[in-house]
Amino acid sequence: MCDTNKMEIDDSVYKTLLESTKAIPWKIDWQSKKFTYIGPQIESLLGWSTSSWHSVDDWIERMHSDDRESVVNFCISQSQAGNDHEADYRALKKDGGYIWIRDVVHVIRKNNEVESIVGFMFDISERKKTEEKLIQLQKELEELSYKDALTNIANRRMFDSILKREWASAQRNQQPIALILLDIDFFKEYNDHYGHIMGDDCLKQVARILSNVATRPRDFVARFGGEEFVLVLSDTDESSAIKIAEECRREITKHAIPHVHSTIDQILTISAGAGAITPLNNSDQKDFIRQIDTLLYKAKLHGRNCVIHKASQQQAILTPPVALR
């Protein structure tokens, strides 16, 4: 009876086992940097015959140019240090296409010196496609989490993030930052008279109009909540902020959205509070928002369809400016 603990398996058995897997085995002599073996599966995967894999130069040349430098430098440094490692990269197929490969590498040492490296190549293209889909889905979900579902502009969460970023920039560069809070006048009455579907359409129209006013690359408009909207304007002083707020008010009236409960010509109007600040180290964002919110409240008390600004807290009476910024 055979003693399995002492049974010897010749090289041909190992070779058969290796070549029957989907993983592609390979071995490189460290001194010569030449392939001493590569599995025949490589030809069905990449199209290159086993005889075409002479040295590491062939491995390097058959790697996507965007991956080449970082992967090669990483693998060489890890191999020199005697560390087993893994690397993902896009491998060139003979037909000109690319597929994702994961190389799992084991370093063989002799007398404390690297003698050779052996490993397996795995086709991870499907896994990469799945990962890319998940990343895209995550990105879309993140975008949705920062977008108001009704108006399709930014929401309050995005506003908080943008204000924090722009505030830090204004503080660092000692530049003014402006804030405009806007509220649709008599919006409850609008909903009561026209219905909530028309109310939703109204909010969408106002969002589009305000977005068309805030046109500079860093101008930001969001739905603040309910029928309130907010503009964050970087590098904008108070006089410019008032002009932009007034332009918003005029554009809304110009579109003549019907509103029977309005105080002016039975069309929809908005009120706004506007102000600017050059933040100091001890300046408080929340306090600034409260100030602008108070100005908006005063605009509503003042009779609506007006802009109250931070400095004078008086109604801003402006002629149409030639250049708003």
UniProtKB/TrEMBL annotation:
GO molecular function: diguanylate cyclase activity
A GO biological process held by the record: cell adhesion involved in single-species biofilm formation
PAC domain boundaries: 85-136
GO CC aspect terms: plasma membrane
Occurrences of domain GGDEF (ranges): 175-312
SUPFAM superfamilies registered for this protein in UniProt: Nucleotide cyclase, PYP-like sensor domain (PAS domain)
Residue ranges constituting the PAS domain according to the UniProt record: 10-83
Protein name: FOG: PAS/PAC domain
